[in-house]
Amino acid sequence: METARQPTTLPLPEPKGDVSAAAKPARKRRPFVVLGLVALAALVAVGAYALVTRGRESTDDAQVTADIVPVSARVSGVLSAVHVHENQAVKRGDLLMELDAADMRARRDQSEAELATAQAQAQAADAQVQIVEATSKGGLTSARAALSGS
């Protein structure tokens, strides 16, 4: 006789609670995982920015406290040499810069020529005065002689 074989099955343990109950803890953790990833990305971005901009300074509203004195020239002209550097401390009487002497020489020569012209005009006027005086004295003498001779 043959015995019929029947498959033996082991009893499966029954899940504790509902299957959806196991998914609930994973769903509760999901916002924290997303928030952690966002925080990690922000931290990486800040670190990368700090690394890239290391050693650079920038400001939109900088102010410097210093003694600033305006310097102006008594005469105008073209500079031929500058004897100071930027932000160099100077004292009263220090030579700061030199003007081109050619312009000054040309102005001096022009002034001397104008002076010579004015002196020549003054001498000509003096000579004219002497001529007028002599002519008027001669005219006065002629008029007196004509008056006495008549």
Give a concise summary.
With 150 residues, the chain is mainly alpha-helical.
Q: How are the elements arranged and paired?
A:
Layout: H1 19-52, E1 79-82, E2 97-99, H2 101-149
* Average residue pLDDT: 83
Strand content: under 5%
Helix content, binned percent: 55-70%
Rg calc: 56 Å
Q: Give the end-to-end Cα distance, rounded to a whole number of Å.
A: 205 Å
Q: How many distinct helices?
A: 2
Number of beta-strand segments: 2
Query: Numbering strands along the chain, what is their spatial order in the largest sheet?
Result: 1-2
Overall shape: it is: rod-shaped
User: From N to C, what is the helix and strand string?
Assistant: HEEH
User: Could you name the ranges where pLDDT drops below 50 across 5 or more consecutive residues?
Assistant: none
State the assembly state of the protein chains: single chain
- Alpha-beta classification: mainly alpha
Question: What profile does the largest beta sheet have?
Answer: 2 strands, antiparallel
